[in-house]
């Protein structure tokens, strides 16, 4: 159970980390690259979604909003966790009462702020540059909100679990990005999933991104775009069910993995890593 003090300390730590990020051009420009990539991809779209008159660019923007959550929670977060483990941050926190709980709160705040900011940036940029628009009713705004919240929680738990398993931050990018790129391909981010073989569609349906992207499309696209959906339906109940299942699995597995990762750290391990880094420098 996370105490009130841990939440307070974690929120303060998270705000400090966000301010430091905003003062680092390299850090925040790296996050801005992803929305820019999806906006560029959307602007290059020329046709319409199969079976409808809806511009393909609108589907790419919707898929890009969902992908922002994946790129932050499953790509950026594991690298941060692996880096904090290697530089001794998690070891120091383990010796502080409530330190690990506060750390989890701070990382949750960072991931939430960065992911939602990138998604909002892409939503506004898509509306201004490609005409993808905004949700046209209160119900669609509510749909967009619950899909993003459930999706972000599910992916953040997944990203934290991956970060706990990664051996070091140098291998994080290679270990994470290839699966993430594969996930983007099979989840219908750039083109309708109905154009892929059924077995690839089934692979995509196992993971959260497919359902997040479909939920975002249901909030942004007209119902005429249903012609390109697997069941010719937005499948809101299925989306909520799959994302909830991932959240439950994450709550059961991720805290244990983080606790095990912190317990494996010791002063001798940290000293050995620093010595190895010093030797490579010469």
Structure description:
The chain is globular and about 60 Å long. The chain contains eleven helices and no strands. The chain has helices at 4-22, 25-43, 56-86, 89-94, 99-129, 138-165, 169-186, 198-206, 208-220, 236-264, 267-281.
Characteristic key phrases:
single chain; mainly alpha
Q: Indicate the low-confidence ranges by residue numbers.
A: none
What is the helix/strand order?
HHHHHHHHHHH
Mean pLDDT, to the nearest integer, reads 82
Helix content: over 70%
Strand content: under 5%
Distance between the termini: 46 Å
Rg from C-alpha positions? 20 Å
Biggest sheet descriptor: none
Q: Helix tally?
A: 11
Overall 3D form? globular
DSSP strand count: 0
* Secondary-structure class: mainly alpha
Write the SSE topology.
Blueprint: H1 4-22, H2 25-43, H3 56-86, H4 89-94, H5 99-129, H6 138-165, H7 169-186, H8 198-206, H9 208-220, H10 236-264, H11 267-281
Helix pairs in contact: 1-5, 2-3, 2-5, 3-5, 3-6, 3-7, 3-9, 6-9, 6-10, 9-10
Q: Briefly, what is this?
A:
The chain has 11 helices and no strands.
